[in-house]
Amino acid sequence: MRRLVRVALLCLGCGLCSLLYAFSQLALSLEQEAPRRQGDPAFPVRRQLSGGDVVAGGWRAVAGSAGRGERTQLQPMQERCKHVSLSYWNSYWMLPSDVCGKNCFWEAAPRYDFLKTKPSEKMHLAVVACGERLEETVTMLRSAIIFSIKPLQFHIFAEDTLHSDFKGKLNSLAYQEKFNYTLYPISFPTENAGEWKKLFKPCASQRLFLPLILSDVDSLLYVDTDILFLRPVDDIWAILKKFNSTQIAAMAPEHEEPRIGWYNRFARHPYYGKTGINSGVMLMNMTRIRRKYFKNDMTTVRLRWEEILMPLLKKYKLNITWGDQDLLNIMFFHNPESLFVFPCQWNYRPDHCIYGSNCQEAEKEGIFVLHGNRGVYHDDKQPAFRALYDAIKNYSFGDDLVKALLLPLELELQKTQHTYCGRIYKVFIKQLSKSIKDIYDRRSKGR
């Protein structure tokens, strides 16, 4: 009888150990798969070192100066034991010796404490600036800093002559703890650099090569210089988690109203959906972009991102008007399953109001991201857009957001009611008011 009890206890112990091992392996595999499903990096990216070389897609790019707070030292091996990139579920005695050596077991408690106070994930935002776009770009970055919650990493691609000015402007901004930045030169594949430079506006096609240049960045929000955030970047960044297993990027439609659409009336090339897409705000899971093989109309063989760009340009360069945006439309026409389409309030442009209001989402909830294309921030054609741009440009960090930003802006917007966009001026401040209220609510809670 005793022998049977011992055997039963032994079997029970073995079964329990097997169950625990299987559970730990399942949890580890789920954690490793999560980044690919959600579009979020589970491991911290390796930061671009100042002055380091980047070799991608057949060209050589030199990384610009790292912004304040950029670290250039590798983390000591012994620190990896309590690093967030290691699995929370991994038993410490199961970690390989090259991670923590003999101290893994003894570092269990400090690592557990570290995981409980896991630092916020950085959001990566990229912009390309050439010519007279310095002030416009800095104003865009200011809007991101004012409203965002988690830390921001700016990737600024600019002509060499603008680098010193960018450093001076950004290093003088308040809220330094909320962002880091890295400056990069404008660079294209050496064999065809001339063709890419003259495509549409100077430097505009640089965005097509971001997945190759920023090879260590998992996800990225690209925006044009004439963008203003009226809501935290955190909220558009969260759209990455809404991607299904096939989606690699998110953009808004070029138009909501086909009767005034450009692509459906004038395009001489394929385009996405009914009215095309606008690439001024483009959210990317760049890991998926680098891995994907794209269907195309040039060959039956699917091509990778770096393989498809130049053939597309050669085939359609006489038929495209809007440069890199047209190439993106062609790519997603053939690969529609790869695009997540977000509503117009995430990329609100003059076209949404100059012929009458045609962005219903903005009417309901306000504008989330304002896109001042057509140069409307710098002329008097659309004073509502210019009023908002001037308000953020002139706002002094630390001043009361209601008294120094919101109320003066509302007074200026009321003066624009002689224009179609001015007649619906309340959509310009509806979300802005909420974002400011949320900031004060977080401060009152001690966040």
From TrEMBL:
Q: Name one GO cellular component term.
A: membrane
One Pfam match, given by its short name, reads Glyco_transf_8
Outline what the protein does. Answer: Glycosyltransferase which elongates the O-linked glucose attached to EGF-like repeats in the extracellular domain of Notch proteins by catalyzing the addition of xylose.
EC code(s) of this entry:
2.4.2.42
Q: Which GO terms describe its molecular function?
A: UDP-D-xylose:beta-D-glucoside alpha-1,3-D-xylosyltransferase activity
Q: How does it sit in the membrane?
A: Single-pass type II membrane protein
- Supply the source organism for this entry: Varanus komodoensis (Komodo dragon)
What's its catalytic activity? 3-O-(beta-D-glucosyl)-L-seryl-[EGF-like domain protein] + UDP-alpha-D-xylose = 3-O-[alpha-D-xylosyl-(1->3)-beta-D-glucosyl]-L-seryl-[EGF-like domain protein] + UDP + H(+)
Instruction: Look at the named UniProt entry and state the broad enzyme category this protein falls under.
Output: transferase
Query: Among its keywords, does the record have Glycosyltransferase?
Result: yes
Q: Tell me which family the UniProt entry assigns to this protein.
A: Belongs to the glycosyltransferase 8 family.
Q: Write out the entry's keywords from A to Z.
A: Glycoprotein, Glycosyltransferase, Membrane, Signal-anchor, Transferase, Transmembrane, Transmembrane helix
Biological processes annotated in GO = protein O-linked glycosylation via N-acetyl-galactosamine
Q: What is this protein called?
A: Glucoside xylosyltransferase 1
Cellular location(s): Membrane
Coiled coil ranges (UniProt) are: none
